[in-house]
Amino acid sequence: MITSVSTIEVRYSETDMMGIVYHASYLPWLELGRTNLLKETGVSYSSIEQSGFFLPVVEIQMKYRRPAKYDDTITIKTTMKEKPFAKIRLDYELYKNNELIATGYSIHAFTNKSGQPIKAPRQFTEAFNQAF
Hints:
Helix content: 10-25%
Largest sheet: 5 strands, antiparallel
Strand content: 25-35%
């Protein structure tokens, strides 16, 4: 299992007229957690793309428990529980002041430049084999 922790401060533009973070604003936070986890294991999104591979989202799910508001500091815990093969699943827990406010997951498929599904590239699996 691999875990990464990131933080972000809620920006005003991420809130709705009630002052609460709009539900879709959480998705870029998951991306932040995902890219940080990859970087920490030695694989950046840009290096994946430069090698001719992509990781499009094929499924995403969120469960909202408590609201976040403007200027809150949010901690994003991103976890990869299984080594990737043709897909990669990442689980997320979001906290405000150590209180769990949202959970979710995303699943990404490995594809080539043509968008065809492929197995995880060797450089990717080698990096994660070392991290697990």
